[in-house]
Each structure stands twice: as C-alpha cells, then as structure tokens.
Amino acid sequence: MGKGGEKGEESVECKTQICFYTWEEIQKHNLRTDKWLVIERKVYNVTKWANRHPGGQRVISHCAGEDATDAFQAFHINPTLVQKFLKPLLIGELAPGEPSQDRDKNSQLVEDFRTLRKTAEDMNLFRANPLFFSLYLAHIIAMEALAWLMVSYFGTGWITTLILACILATSQAQAGWLQHDFGHLSVFKKSSWNHIVHKFVIGHLKGASANWWNHRHFQHHAKPNIFKKDPDVNMLHVFVLGDTQPIEYGKKKLKYLPYNHQHEYFFLTRILLSFLIPHSHMLPDPNTFMHFLITPSRVPQATFFPAYGEELRKRYRESSSLSVLNLTARKLTPMGRFLESHWFVWVTQMNHIPMEIDCEKHKDWLSSQLAATCNIEQSFFNDWFTGHLNFQIEHHLFPTMPRHNFWKVKPLVKSLCAKYGVQYEEKSLGKAFVDIIGSLKKSGDLWLDAYLHK
Question: Is residue 226 part of a domain?
Fold first, then answer.
C-alpha cells in the first residue's frame, strides 16, 4: 500500500497509483498553507496554485477541505477548459465508500440542483442576448451625452445642475449594474472578452479596479453572509450584523460605536462617505486610463464621460472670475455622489442584510445561497432600477447566467425549494428597504442587551 499523504495516514489508500481519501482526511487540509478541495469526487491540492488563481486566492481558499463542485460550475463558463489547469493538481479521488457530499449534506438535494442546472443549460438560459446588452450600454451612453448637451446649451445654473446630478447618478448606477454583468462572465462566450469589456466599463465609466472587484465579489458569492469569508459583511466594527455577532460583541464589552443606534447612523455614514469619498463603494484603480480628469484647480470631473469633462475644462479656461468648473463641480459632484451612493447601497444590501448572517455552517450550495439571499418582486421598474438584482436568488445560484433569463429559471428554483422545504423569500421593494433598517435595529438591540446584562 502506497501513501498519498504524509506517512502514517491510515485514511489514505493508493492502488495502482491512484490515491483514495476519506472526507475526514480531506477536511484537515483547510489551512492557509495546506489546501485541498474536491470537484466531482476528484481531490486536488491547490496550496501552491491558489496564489495564481484568476479569481484570487481567497475565494478558492474558502472552499478548502470541502466539496467545491457546485462552486466550480457556478463561476466558470467553460469548466472543461479550466480542467487543464486542475489536471496537474490532481492527487487522488474520494474512496469508493465515501459519499459525494461532505458533512452529511442532503445528497438528493444536491443531485436535484445539479439536474436543475443541466436543465437550464439545455434551455440555453446561459446564452446571452447581444441586443439586450447593446441597448443597455446605449442607454447609459445616451444619458452621458445628454448631460454634455445640457451643460453646453443651458449652462451651470442650479436647476440644470440638479437635473444633471440625477441623470449622471442614473447613468453611473446603471453602469455599475452593467460592469457586474461582464464581471460575472455572463455576456460573451469567451472569458477573455468578458474581462476586456469589464475593465473598460468599470474603469472608463466607473473609475474603479476590475481586479479589486473580482477578488471581493467572488468571495461574496462563494460564501455569502459568512463572517471572515464574505468581505461584504466585514463592517470593520462600524456595524454588528445578524444574531450571533451582536451578542458576541456585547459579552466581550466591545463598543467601538453605539450599535443600538446603528439603524440611525446608517443614514449618516452613507451621507458622509458620499460627500467625502468619491465613489465610496469602490476603490480607484491607479492604472485606469480614465479615472478622473484633473483640472488646474485640482477638482475632479463630475462624470467619466470625456466630452463632458472637456466642456467643463473649456468653460474653466473661458471663465475670468469664479471658475465655472469649480462651481459646477462643487454643486454637481456631491449631488451625484449622494444619489448614486445611496442607490448602490440600498439595492445591494436589501437582499442580504436582513437574511441569515453567521459563521460557516458548511451547507450545500442551494441552501447556503437561499439562507443569505432574498428576491424582490418583479416589475419593469424593479428590473431596471436594481439591474435585475431583484432576482438575487437566481443570480447567486447561477452567477454566469445572463440576467434577462433569470425570470425563466425562477419557477424551477421555486419548485426545487418547495420540494425540500428550503425557504424562498420574496418581498416588495419598499419592504426590502424597510427590512434593512429593521435588521440593523434588531442586531443593535441584541448587542445592547448582551452588553448590559451578560
């Protein structure tokens, strides 16, 4: 008998150069310096390769010691192509007597979900409609062009500036949803094309880093609402979330802020960030060729559309007294930031903050995504306003699926959830916003009770 792991490991059996491992052995390899994962019953040692993983080393590390089959299928639009990178990392297979799923997961639920995914593939629901995304990009550019025309013909009065702020905030919000599509590889058949356009949209229209977005957002999708794994719930002591973290903080007498008032200062933090930090929900990419147009007065342009920035620079040069650029930027930039920042935060948090937020529980893919995610009722406005993130459940289950097909797979998902008693939560847009505040208040009250009495 050969050894596939370290000497003395009785749970490893190698026959004819094929090593067989038990789940007990595999689950030990979930450390920073020792990472194994299982995909379709094959065992891979990704320890050294993790740093070269295109999606970032953290997202693959979060699946270490587990069955990563569903996560692997969810994130890759061509799993067969990716297999060539996995082949050199193969170290063995699950022992014949071991179940395909780890940690007592419901194997029938897992198999039924994979059947559902195969059904969606057969229905061509992972095929994008080029016309949909072309028109979507066109309506963003049209809004940017309209802003340029307005400042050219109507000047920079307060009424014009207010209208411009609304137009530009809308175009920026919609550009944010569009970059999200390309970032998830849900538009083109080839990953490289999606990556190229993603860098253009997020860099040119948003002024943010594609790499930063990828590394953060894929972690969120792999382990939504899981502390220490989902960066979106790492609030840096500003908020306490869920039911367990507030009690933990309270018992330890941690009081970085008065958390019992977090549902109130939630508004204040967004206002401060939107005024003090440009695009506060994103980090700037120093390599982006159109991040900010800086004028001699060191005031950044109010939009990433170059013609609009050029028009402002022209007016700056022609102005003899108070700079029109300064005046416009002082009025327009804070307004645009304020509107877009709130739009972004309320839409992205309404699906997750009111849901289960806790430590890792090692649930199957369907159950983990449904526990952390809810949907918002469908309507033309809701679809447009949220960039189809009102179908958050379907998006999390199938992140590479083009958003215009979510409504088609929704009945299949609801049927599967009903079969296994998995809660499928859907609510109105207004209730979703209210639930954010209610959830923050509930967590704050839990913290205060633990802080005072435990």
Answer: no
Is-contact 399 405, C-beta < 8 A? no
Contact 156, 324 (CB under 8 A): yes
In the chain, the number of structural domains is 1
Instruction: Decide: 37 and 84 in contact? Cβ < 8 Å.
Output: no
Q: Does a structural domain hold residue 207?
A: no
In one-letter notation, the amino acid at residue 231 is: P
Percent of the chain with pLDDT over 70: 82
Output the six-digit token pair for 159: 């009424």
- Sign of the CA dihedral with 63 first, then 64, 69, and 75 last: positive
- 43's CB contacts (< 8 A; 6+ apart) are 19, 21, 26, 36, 37, 90, 91, 92, 93, 94
φ/ψ (deg, to 5) at 426 = -140, 140
What pLDDT is attached to residue 341?
Answer: 82
The maximal CA–CA distance of the chain, rounded, in angstroms, is 88
What's CA 92's distance to the chain center, in Å? 33
Look at residue 355 and tell me if it is in a domain: no
pLDDT at 342: 85
Query: What is the torsional sign of CA 157, 162, 166, 172?
Result: positive
pTM reported for the whole predicted model: 0.85
* DSSP β-ladder status, 18-21 and 12-15: antiparallel
Closest of 378, 372, 366, 380 to residue 414, by C-alpha: 366
Number of Cβ atoms within 10 Å of the Cβ of 227: 17
Residue 300's SS3 state is: strand
What residue numbers bound the domain in which 78 lies? 20-103
For residue 354, give the nearest of 237, 233, 260, 253 by alpha carbon.
233
Of 84, 131, 102, 109, nearest to 22 by C-alpha is 102
Q: What DSSP character marks residue 323?
A: -
d(CA 83, CA 103): 25
What span, in angstroms and rounded, lies between the C-alpha atoms of 282 and 296? 25
Residues of the chain with pLDDT under 70: 1-16, 156, 270-334
Cβ atoms within 10 Å, residue 357? 24
Mean pLDDT across the chain: 84
The beta strand positions in 285-443, using DSSP E, are 375-376, 426-427
Backbone angles phi, psi at 15, to 5 degrees: -130, 130
For 392-428, where are the alpha helices, taking DSSP H only?
Answer: 392-397, 406-420
Question: 127 in helix, strand or coil?
Answer: coil
369 within some domain = no
Coil, helix or strand at residue 90:
strand
